Amino acid sequence: MSVIATDGLGKRYGRSITALEGLTIDVEPGEIFGFLGPNGAGKSTTIRLLLGFLHPTAGRATVFGLDTERSSVEIRARVGYLPGGIALYDSLTGHDLLAYLADLYDRPAPDRAELVDRFEFSDRDLRRPVRDYSRGMRQKIGIVQALQHDPELAILDEPTEGLDPLMQRAFYGILDDRRARGRTIFLSSHVLSEVERVCDRVAIIRKGRLAALQDVAALLARRKRNVEMRLDGPPLSLEGVPGVSGVMVRDGLLTCHLEGDVGPFLRAIAGAPVVDLTIEPAHLEEAFLEFYAEELGLAPDRPSEGGTHIGGEGATGRRLEDDRADEAAATSAGPRR
Amino acid sequence: MSRALLGHTLRAQRLRLAAVVLGLAAWGFFMPVIYSQFGVQFKQLFESGVIPSQFAQFGEGDVFSLAGAIGLGFIHPIALLLNSILGVGFAAGALAGERQRGTLEVLLARPLSRRVVYATLLFATLLFIAVAVAAILAGNLAGAALFNVIREIDVARMPILWLNGVLLFAAFGSIGLAASASFDRLSPALGVTLTIVLVSYFLEILGSLWPDASWLQAYSLFHYLKPRDVLTGQVDLFGPGLMLAVIVVAVAYALVEFPRRDLAAPS
Predict the structure, then answer these.
(1) A104·B101 Cβ contact <8 A
(2) Is A53–B262 a contact, with Cβ atoms under 8 angstroms apart?
(3) What is the pLDDT of residue A153?
């Protein structure tokens, strides 16, 4: 049985605003499932529907086989949730906050000590009021409160926002441990590199619709690697080598794309006067952009080097940023009172 | 009801509750003192015509009898202000305030139904009101006992007055909590509730001071508190019944509305 299953799930506000439309996904037990999309795409709306904060206007969703509309309390008893941009009870100390939020589950919090330790909270930190915490500390304590009771399913909305690289690494370690214990993680993010690093599968959502649902490893395996090779001699012919395309040679520098098995390529260059060779690892961002460029209405340009945010600096990133304005109304989920 | 949420709420409000209790007890103590020390002089002043006689009927209280002084203490703006800090302020902010701060979703991510959260906060509101009204009455009794006028009232009727006072502020508190369950931000919830309280108060005071407008009093919940009548043995069940009806309607509305509404992401 799937841990999360949605069937044509949708949320509309009035007649004009569609926050989510026809979402059908399954999240399997023990999997880390990435839920990816630019801000305003419908990620938070989906999460709020799963937790019963919002009522669907179309389709249905189940968590642990329980209907999110009818059994919301039973579902939440087995879920840990980190909201995006978490707000905390600022007057409480870190220790009191964790104790209070655990008490609301009416069961022990067996993982609290370990999580506190892995996030390097000192006893002194936990005795300070939360209002004195930095953004990173707030995020860390937000993660601790979501996971301290060892939930079967953790729903984490932008979990690494504000975490420094060391703490991000600690967080990824925590996720790996939880996966090893058979726990399921539903991780919403707009950081592709994060999803690439930790997720088994990824769903990409855009303008409230599911744009793609892929196995991360399979997606990366289909990625064309970028090859740069400096030669000290005549140009090398790579014509007919399986997986090689886009060969260009300029001033002794050969560049090409390499897809699939690297064996034929390595055999082809054996004995050639190669003085330097770089094969860039396949990144999810590029794989994603190549694979779904047409479907998402993006130019199939190569994104900026090292940019890992969907809405990053590159040309394609700008394209997605532009979409955000249209989607902002839908995200905030409806009429405020 | 959630014990953890109730405990957290009580701890968070304990200093405010202590300040309100002290303030109301002191105010309650003060009223019998004014009556015992200055009641006669006040009566002479009113009889001399220096102060218009209608002012002796402010909110249907007076300072010429202990029952009247206790009644005046209840309806006086100072008592209203102190009672409203928790009875109205806490109630109106209980859900809308958490929603505005973004902490409501942390709370509702726990295995608590919205009705349980509402019921717990309603219980806390009623508890604060019960303690606050008891504080003013305790102050009344202490002042009356210390200045040897306690025999002028039937102390056995004080619990009825306490119940009337609790019902009055519980009616406003339940309206505040219903407003709190309906809005995403504190200001409209507080604004709606304060408007109802202040309009109700204005109608009662205007009607009590101006005979031509006395019909307006029937539209004020304060009119049905009647502390002087309760202490002098005149019991009218319509008032408490009306206040109870307001509470039932407000609670029923909130119990339907709060679980039904969408809680969008905080902006």
Answers:
(1) no
(2) yes
(3) 96
Per-residue pLDDT of A280-316, as tens digits, reads: 866 666 666 666 665 555 544 443 333 333 333 333 3
d(CA A73, CA B135): 38
Structure tokens at A321: 């940023």
> Measured between beta carbons, which residues in chain A are less than 8 angstroms from residue B107?
104
- Please list every residue in chain A whose beta carbon sits closer than 8 Å to the beta carbon of residue B109: 51, 76, 79, 81, 83
Distance separating alpha carbons of residues B120 and B117, to the nearest angstrom:
5
Inter-chain contact B111–A104, Cβ cutoff 8 Å? yes
Selected for mutation to probe chain B from A39, A73, A88 (highest B CB count within 10 Å) is A73
Whole-angstrom Cα distance, residue B238 to residue B47? 34
Q: What is the rounded CA–CA span in Å between residue B79 and residue B76?
A: 5
Residue whose structure tokens are 């101006």: B210
Percentage of chain A exceeding pLDDT 70: 83
Rounded to a whole number of angstroms, the distance from the CA of B92 to the nearest CA of chain A is: 14
Q: Convert A47-111 into a string of H (helix), E (strand) and C (coil).
A: HHHHCCCCCCCEEEEEECCEECCCCHHHHHCCEEEECCCCCCCCCCEHHHHHHHHHHCCCCCCCC
Kindly state whether B112 is in contact with chain A, defined as any CB-CB distance less than 8 angstroms. Answer: yes
Nearest CA in chain A to B260: A55
What are the residue ranges spanned by the domains of chain B? Answer: 3-260
User: Are residues B102 and A55, on separate chains, in Cβ contact within 8 Å?
Assistant: no
- Among A76-80, A320-324, B92-96, B214-218, whose mean pLDDT is lowest? A320-324
Task: For residues B142 and B129, give the distance between their C-alpha atoms in angstroms, rounded to a whole number.
Answer: 20
Q: In A, what residues contact B, Cβ < 8 A?
A: 44-45, 48, 51, 53-55, 72-74, 76-77, 79, 81, 83-89, 91, 100-101, 103-106, 145, 331-334, 336-337
Q: Give me the residue spans of the domains in chain A.
A: 4-216, 224-279
Q: What's the pLDDT score for residue A232?
A: 87
Contact B111 A337 (CB under 8 A): no
Sign of CA dihedral A157, A158, A164, A166: positive
Q: Give the CATH architecture of domain A4-216.
A: 3-Layer(aba) Sandwich (3.40)
Mean pLDDT by 10 residues, chain B (267 residues): 93 93 94 82 71 67 80 88 89 92 92 95 95 94 89 88 93 95 92 94 87 88 86 84 95 95 79
Who has greater pLDDT, A336 or B110?
A: B110
Instruction: Determine phi and psi for A151, rounding to 5 degrees.
Output: -70, 150
| pLDDT band (50, 70, 90) for residue A116 | very high
Looking at the partner chain, which of B2, B103, B182 has a beta carbon nearest the beta carbon of A87? B103
Distant-in-sequence, close-in-space partners of A264: CB < 8 Å, separation ≥ 6: A241, A242, A243, A244
CB pairs under 8 A between A and B: 87
